[in-house]
Amino acid sequence: MSQQKRLFLVDAYAMIFRGYYALIKNPRVNSKGQDTSAIFGFMNSLLDVIKRERPDHLAVCFDKGGSVDRVEMFEAYKANRDETPEGITTAIPYICDILKAMHIPIMEKEGFEADDVIGTLSRQAEKSGYQVFMVTPDKDFGQLVTENIFMYRPMFGGGYETWGIPEVKKKFEVENPMQVIDFLGMMGDSSDNIPGLPGVGEKTAKKFIKEYGSMENLLANTHELKGKMKERIEENKELGMLSKTLATIMLDVPVEFCEKDFEMSEPNIPEVIKIFEELEFRQLMNNFLKTFSAEASEVQNTTSNQTIQPAKPKAAAGAGQFSLFDADTNEGAIDVNQNSRVTAKTNSHFYQSVASGMATKLFIQNLMKQSSVCFDTETTSINPIEAELVGIAFSWEAGKGFYLPFPENRDEAQALIEQLRPFFENESIQKIGQNLKYDIKVLNKYKVDVKGKLFDTMLAHYLINPDMRHNMDVLAETYLNYTPISIEELIGKKGKNQLSMRDVPLEQQTEYAVEDADVTLQLKEHFETELGEANIQKLFDEIEVPLLRVLADMELEGINLDEEFLKSLSTELENDIKNLEANIYKEAGEEFNIASPKQLGDILFDKLKLVDKPKKTKTGQYATSEDILSYLAKDHDIIQHILDFRGLSKLKSTYVDALPNQVEPSTGRVHTDYMQTVAATGRLSSNNPNLQNIPIRTERGRQVRKAFIPRDDNYVLLAADYSQIELRIIAALSEEETMINAFKNGEDIHASTASKVFNVPIEEVTREQRSNAKTVNFGIIYGVSAFGLSNQTDLSRGEAKELIDTYYSTYPKLRNFISEQVDFARENGYVQTVLGRRRYLNDINSRNAVVRGAAERNAVNAPIQGSAADIIKLAMINIHNKLEVGNFKSKMLLQVHDELVFDVLKSELEDIKKLVKTEMENAFKLSVPLDVDLGVGNDWLEAH
User: Fold this and answer.
1) Residue 491 CB: number of other CB atoms within 10 A?
2) Which residue has the higher pLDDT, 221 or 327?
């Protein structure tokens, strides 16, 4: 039986930096004055690995351009890093030349980090029967470890240690290496500037992993937390999920493991020697020659000559999530069955730019004959409100398409749009696109409405596979085995030297833009089939696509901001912060930098000696994270003042001072961007600015809502909020008559529950009993445990268990519903909402109890939270339609989970209140009534 083949993947920059800094106190400088430390250190490590392990296959993986996706998600990602030392930047070309001479493949991909390249290649090689060893000191790679993928970590003082599953579990105190992602997301990573959850350090993150298993489960059970920790995490849920995403190593980079290319082979010894002589590496040259001597080669592991072909890409989606797309393709279409990825250079296609004049007229005549057309706008900005059209691409046949360049002169551009208006406003021609909301908003600037049936491939894929990324490049590579032209190839990377699309030659604009339209058209053909197989076509046609138009209008409308109020609030906060500062200095007996953890730790624990045995971080300084300080706050005024100082400082910088900078100059309003394709449950998320995460738990936090005001004195804000919608949904889905009747009778549901479980008349329910019942009512949705309930109440764990048992015996159908949901998920791999939205639960049958438990809780929570999201989306669509049909001047502005905010003309107020309440309460019929609370005010706080 042949020995399992081994692939070694070297994390280039990690090893280069390690080699450079290992010699920082005694750098290697040759006779020309050249610092060769980085080259010497890296090559020594590489030769050491080759001598020790004699790998069958090896590659060195580099970053190239950083992670575009992560920076798009979080602009500050790795922004804290110092400029790369010159000794490293000058070393890279030499290292690459040496690797090429050694016939060792260099693996890199523009816009991706080496971590992602290594992650992708390791998974591909594992599937091809390899053991993979990731050569890196970076502990983040622990998340990739499996039975066949290992970390090969250099140790201080020499040698290497191999981390398999047991080592990763021990190091991070996890049950599964994948939980390393959750661990990193919770505690953050200062080296990568990943924020993590405020107040959560290494110890707390490990504690949370033990208790909850995942970031999602922690965030779903924040009601089990206490004090400041609970408040901080609840206020930063989105930050936590963002941090987890940033910490997740990607496994879908467009690179391929080709067995033959990665095979260790004889180096070009004369070429390597030539480079070593130039660098004056005499000792390293001897080391190299010994490593590749005949004697060493004899003991090298033998490898099979058989070439393993890369697997065809699988499309993990919807009903066909384990199927391949094997349908016949049209001439010019991308062949999804090819093993190597296709590009514009290797794929037959016909992309043509259309000249002005008669050519444009003839093109439009042909365009108007089509029944379905994909279009894609090219603009000067990613901000649709300020963007100007550079061109529009069209495609209605695979492999073919046309590009209309737009003149820079606005009047001439408007004249061209007028020629295209009949197409865009034609009701019978279907319009296809990727992220059509952006295109609709851009065209709105030119007074054009996009009418007719829409098909958005990003939205379609979100419904098919909500947990995957949905950008076009990923979809093209996953479903079409095609790598599109990168935008960086045209305009360069971000920065002052980046070009505008107008600066790109017309021929390149045409290839890039029409390729996008062509690829999107072909994706549409796949996704139509998938939507039908997953039985979600109706959800797509009647919810997500109509909502796209609603959100576009809301985003274009924006909301008025009282900047003067925010300035005054900023001044008040500044005074509060200064007063806190003065109190802290007085209590400390000296002035110091309160924001410095080291200085703060020295004051609290060295000078004031607040505790006998203060905790320290791994760097040796005192730990001053919020979870540690919160525990001490009740006993020491200075600690509470420091926590207040931090809270007000964050409120001021994140919201009060930041919001005015996000006012759009051309409109004078704030225009958030609602994203339909982020939350797997179906909830909308808000960005730039995030208006769904404005803090409301503190008095100062609530005041931020006061800054959002009507458009003028003739308008007021109306806030409409669903009352306890998730409890109403679980009552209806479980068919629990007792709860249903309580809602129908308009009873206080928490008092009603307390009356049943404590067996007392409803009028005799105490405040404490109602509070405990409320905790259980909401906790059931998130799988509350006796331990969690006891932490949130004054009940002992035994009393909490008894209360939960009594609750379930009082509401037996509720318990049955929970069991049925879990059983359904185990059999089908997903659960669904009242409108058929699916949430796939890949871990529902996991042998790991912690992982499986989290999936089981999601099996109960997802249909409830997702149904609430579906219902408010229906309400938004219906309200939007009624406002348009009625020619109302009042507008819908914001959606914040279960709440809608409107800018209402005072003379229309009573009509709008009636319309909104009626449409929200009748958006979807359940066996319980949907109640909506209305509030009116001259600002959002007053209305809410």
Assistant:
1) 18
2) 221
Give the Cα separation of 516 and 329 in Å (integer): 18
Q: Which of 519, 501, 929 is nearest to 743 (CA)?
A: 929
Q: d(Cα 939, Cα 917) in Å, to the nearest integer? A: 20
Q: Which of 274-283, 618-627, 902-911 has the lowest mean pLDDT?
A: 618-627
Q: What is the 3-state secondary structure (H, E, C) of 814-827?
A: HHHHHHHHHHHHHH
CA distance 125 to 732: 49
Q: Which residues contact 669 (CB under 8 A, 6 or more apart)?
A: 557, 558, 559, 560, 561, 663
Nearest to 137 by CA among 17, 25, 247: 17
CB 854 within 8 A of CB 874: no
Distance CA 42, CA 14 (A): 9
The CATH code that applies to domain 726-862 is 1.10.150.20
3-state SS assignment for residue 396: strand
What does the block give as tokens for 793? 């109440």
> Would you state the structure tokens that stand for residue 600, as one six-digit string?
């703060």
For residue range 472-502, what is the model confidence (pLDDT) as tens digits? 988 888 788 888 888 888 887 766 677 888 8
Which residue from 136, 50, 147, 27 is spatially nearest to 98, judged by alpha carbons? 50
User: Residue 902 pairs with which residues in a beta bridge?
Assistant: 718, 892
- Tell me the CATH class for 350-534: alpha beta
**Residue 295 — very low, low, confident or very high, per pLDDT cuts 50/70/90?**
very low
Measured at the CA of 645, the angle between CA 643 and CA 648, to 5 degrees, comes to 105
Residue 572 makes CB contacts below 8 A (sequence gap 6+) with none
Residue type, 94: Y
Q: Look at the alpha carbons of 291, 294, 300, 302 in this order and tell me if their dihedral is positive or negative.
A: positive
**Residue ranges of domains in the chain:** 6-172+249-297, 350-534, 560-670, 726-862
Using pLDDT thresholds of 50, 70 and 90, give the confidence band for residue 103: very high
Q: Looking at the DSSP assignment, which residues form a beta bridge with residue 916? A: none
d(CA 383, CA 183): 34
- Alpha carbon 2 to chain centroid, angstroms: 43
Tens digit of each residue's pLDDT (9 = 90 or more) over 345-366: 888 899 999 999 999 999 999 9
Class of domain 6-172+249-297: alpha beta
pTM exceeds 0.70, yes or no: no
With a CB cutoff of 8 Å and minimum separation 6, the contacts of 618 are 202
Residue 771 C-beta-side C-alpha neighbours within 13 Å: 9
Helices 91-101 and 37-53: crossing angle in degrees, nearest 10, is 30
- In 3D space, the residue among 582, 729, 567 whose CA is nearest the CA of residue 657 turns out to be 567
The backbone torsions φ and ψ at residue 385, rounded to the nearest 5 degrees and listed phi first, read -75, -30
Reported as a single tens digit per residue, the pLDDT across 116-174 is 999 999 999 999 999 999 999 988 999 999 999 999 998 766 678 899 999 999 999 99
| Contact indicator for 478, 252 with CB cutoff of 8 Å | yes
Eight-state DSSP code of residue 898: T
Which residues touch 77 (CB under 8 Å, ≥6 apart)? Answer: 67, 70, 71, 192, 193, 194, 246
CB 862 within 8 A of CB 887: no
Most distant CA atoms of the chain, gap in Å: 94
Q: Does the pLDDT at position 1 exceed 70?
A: no
User: Who's near 195: CB < 8 A, 6+ residues apart?
Assistant: 74, 188, 239, 242, 243
Beta strand 160-163 with 454-456: parallel, antiparallel or unpaired? Answer: unpaired
Q: Which of 665, 669, 694, 686 is nearest to 559 (CA)?
A: 669
Domain 560-670 has CATH 1.20.1060.10: yes
Number of separate helices (H) and strands (E) present in the chain: 40, 24
Distance CA 377, CA 371 (A): 20
Asked if residue 709 lies in contact with residue 939, where contact means CB atoms within 8 angstroms, the answer is: yes
What whole-number percentage of the chain has pLDDT above 70? 91
DSSP run (H or E) holding 549: helix 545-557
